[in-house]
Amino acid sequence: MIASLAFAAALVVHAAPAAGQDGPIVTAGPASGESADALRLREAVAYANPLPRGAPEEDYPLVAWCEALVNGHVALGETLTDADPLDRDIIRLGRLEAADFRSALDAATPRQSARSRAAAEAAAAEAKAKWAPLNGQDEAVRSQAFGLFFGLPGRCEHAARRLRDNVTTAPATPSEVGLE
Predict the structure, then answer these.
(1) What does the buried/exposed string (b/e) look like for 95-126 if buried means 16 or more CB atoms within 10 Å of the residue's CB?
(2) For 74-94, what is each residue's pLDDT tens digit?
(3) Quick one: 51 exposed, middle or buried, by C-beta within 10 A (0-12, 13-18, 19+)?
(4) 60-74 burial string, b = 16+ CB within 10 Å, else e?
(5) pLDDT of residue 151
(6) For 85, phi and psi rounded to 5 degrees?
(7) How far is 103 from 56, CA to CA, in rounded Å?
(8) pTM, to two decimals
(9) Do residues 56 and 163 make contact, with C-beta atoms less than 8 angstroms apart?
């Protein structure tokens, strides 16, 4: 089912170029011009997929966890003395992603309860600690770990948008967007 959900989301998000036009195909977003239905479908898929073990379920702590993972990955990449252009681009994109998560957290902090803020701090500390065993390792180990980071759950970007925009309704389910 997860594969079919991902495939359906990919089909909805891919924008076909105009006839005779070469151009990039949108594979992530939110892309400019993405329809509300496409965004709703991607969000339903993201929230339907299970989170990694240890990831918080609530949006605010989840975004703090996601930000800490990205910041840890960026920090690890910055320790590499042999970073190639792709590594440097991944670091640059990671900084942008972390800034996006930070802006969502900053926008939502005044609306959070003390319990939610504490959960976010704990989640961020737990995510940051995942990178600690790599401190002091030799360059080859750090480089391999940097290259093997598989990224974040898709829910991170949606949770950040929902926080930033103060969306309080539940995300759509796969059945509500016609996937089940």
Answers:
(1) eebbebbbebbeebeeebeeebbebbeebbeb
(2) 999 999 998 899 999 999 999
(3) middle
(4) bbbbbbbbbbbbbbb
(5) 81
(6) -55, -35
(7) 19
(8) 0.80
(9) no
